[in-house]
Request: fold
Amino acid sequence: MKPIVECVPNFSEGRRPEVIDQIVAAVESVAGVRVLDRSSDADHNRTVITFVGPPSAIGDAAFAAIARAAELIDMDQQRGEHPRMGATDVVPFVPIAGVTMADCVEIARKLGARVGTELGIPVYLYEAAATRPDRVNLGDLRPQSHQYEQKKAAVGREAKWAPDFGPAKVGKAGVTAIGARAPLIAYNVYLTTGDVRIAEKIARAIRHSNGGLRFVKARGFLVEGKAQVSMNLTDFTQTPVHRAVEMIRREAARYGVSIESSELVGMIPQQALIDAATWYLQLDNFEPRLIIENRLGEG
Reply:
């Protein structure tokens, strides 16, 4: 298989499809890059775009998207449920085939330098691309108490928030975090209640930072009148999706509610679904070769 890198940028716009159309078009303008998915949420006012391409092109596509978003999204006007720092909020690169994490780190750092220099947007490097230990975790860069408005006031005044690239001044495009990481699963669970306090309590119980499941980040939101537990599973091989879902189910029962439905934001590795199916069906001796399509693919 040819070298493939995945890029999953998050944009602070989920209510104007015409804006997202233009950002997607910017990505698609780069030869060799393919958009696989786009997912928007009006309450969160956020869109996640998933695209793939060779290492030689993926950075150019990300740059085109960031530049277009900076033109179209004014962070002084942006409001939504989801924490955010910039028009292009985060840009992670993920190794898929024929590339290493080190390759993705190089792509992220080159893009960060280019965004800072050519677009004048402050850039923070995070996850594997981070140059400082206090910036590895995205949650430390974008805590609930320090979003766009706070960054705008702090950058240039507080040494802690000095960007890795770009000016020490925040414009209407905000700041952008660029990094390299393993595949992440963004997964939301809706409860049979409109009481967001229950979602917040469940999120607090399951997230790692409060003593919950390792590799799980979670928050509670109110979305379209429903309480939602929003999760990022940063390593599904260590904390699988089904384990997080079952913990939510048990915690919800404490409050007399249950799971109504769930949704993916973006895409999911096939293995994560196989792991969930194997667990729920109790297929103790299951092997991937037992899937017809996998066997056919062996030739």
About this structure: The first strand starts at residue 4 and ends at 7. The chain has a mean pLDDT of 96. The two ends are 16 Å apart (CA to CA). The chain has nine helices and eleven strands.
